[in-house]
Amino acid sequence: MSPCRSRLAHVVPFLAVAALVAACSKEVPPPPRPAPEVAVVTIEPRTIPYTPTFVAQTESSRQVNIVARVSGFLDSIAYSEGDLVKQGQLMFKLDTKPFLAQLNAAKGELQAQQARLDTAQVTYRRVKPLADQDALPQMDLDRAKGELDAARAAVFSAQAKVEEATLNLGYATITSPVTGVASRSLQRQGAYVNALADSANLTYVAALDPIWVNFSISQNQMAHFQELAEKHLVVAPRDDNFDVEIILPNGTPYAKRGQIGFADPSFSPDTGAFLVRAVIPNPRHELRPGMFVTARLLGAVRPNAIVVPQLAVQQGSNGHAVFVVGANGVAEVRPVIVGDYVGDKDIVIQTGLNPGDRVIVDGMMRVVPGQPVRIAATSATPAAAAPAGGAAPAAGGATAGKPTDASKADAKKK
Question: Which residues of the chain have pLDDT under 50?
């Protein structure tokens, strides 16, 4: 074998081993990452309720303090504290004996003055003819006429005293002026009640049906509503005839709805709000004065509103945004301006979305802007709207961006 062939025989195995080592050290490229699966809703404008909500407090539609109008000893308490009393029902009774004595004395004085009047009339009838014939001096006639007028005045005064004594006797029996629930008695049986002191306050009766519900509307809330109305984003009911619904402290709606019965014409300089009063039927007395409830104004609507689930809205340093799937299946970030909440799950989008846009509502943490996504078969279309009469958006406009359940779960996974 020649020297050249001998060298080549040694080089060829070395090159083969080197090529094998190079091939083994070269990494295999990873397979392409599949497009993440997301759930979307397709935007479709629709008419939804616009329901401002307010913190409210109930008040008796007629609360009357029961006050003694005459002084005396409290003889009896004729009602059960905390129970319903009817109009005209006996509640308290003072000792009537002193008032009966005063009435009898006044009647006796009236009889005496009446007898004096009778005598004066007889005297005048006897003196007048004689004075006309100059049989008696004119002075006697004038005196008889004066005594007659004085007797008539005395009778009039005595009659007034009888009426006063009769009234005082009647005031000793105290009845309820309204039908309602009576409070506890502030005086006990046997106590002396002074009509000119604090002891004259005996109790109060609060009418419960109907009941008033008071709430305040601030200048900002009023301005916000007027702005929406001017832009035709909200349409109020005809003649502003809102229905008022009450939400009880446990979150359940009260069975009866009412109407606005009074609105203060001016704003309070202390609070910058004006008072609104609703009248609510309360036949079963479930609402009591002083309760804190939520008042909802029903009747206004948002025409052509764009609504998305709250979990679709993300908040960043530059405001709010949503992920939208384009026609080419690529995800993009869309800045939006949010409006009021609708119920517990949805929110109104004022600007930033158009009909037909596909908004991602689940799987946002796996989405990369500018990269394709795969839409799940269970995606909803169109976005759900609030039910008629629906849950209330905040009265002055809500601010979105609070953490959603989906974002919290994705954050935990990270």
Answer: 4, 8, 11-12, 17, 21, 381-414
Q: Which helix (H) or strand (E) holds 223?
A: helix 219-230
Residue 245 to residue 257: CA distance in whole angstroms:
5
CB burial of residue 46 (10 Å; 0-12, 13-18, 19+): middle
Ranges of H-type helices in 26-175: 97-132, 138-171
Q: Which of 252, 275, 301 is the last residue of a domain?
A: 301
| Structural domain span for residue 162 | 96-171
Contact 181, 83 (CB under 8 A): yes
The pTM assigned to this predicted structure is: 0.70
Neighbours of 166 (CB within 10 A): 15
The answer to the question of residue 158 being in a domain is: yes
Over the stretch 139-160, which tens digit does the pLDDT of each residue have? Answer: 888 888 899 999 999 999 999 9
Contact residues for 91 (Cβ-Cβ < 8 A; gap 6+): 66, 77, 78, 79, 85, 174, 175, 176, 182, 202, 203
Number of domains in the chain: 3
The answer to whether the CB of 295 falls within 8 A of the CB of 280 is: no
Tens of pLDDT, residues 339-381 = 888 878 899 998 899 999 999 998 888 888 888 988 887 655 4
Query: Could you tell me if 364 and 340 lie in one domain?
Result: yes
| Torsion sign across C-alpha atoms 380, 386, 391, 397 | positive
- Is the distance from CB of 319 to CB of 352 less than 8 angstroms? no
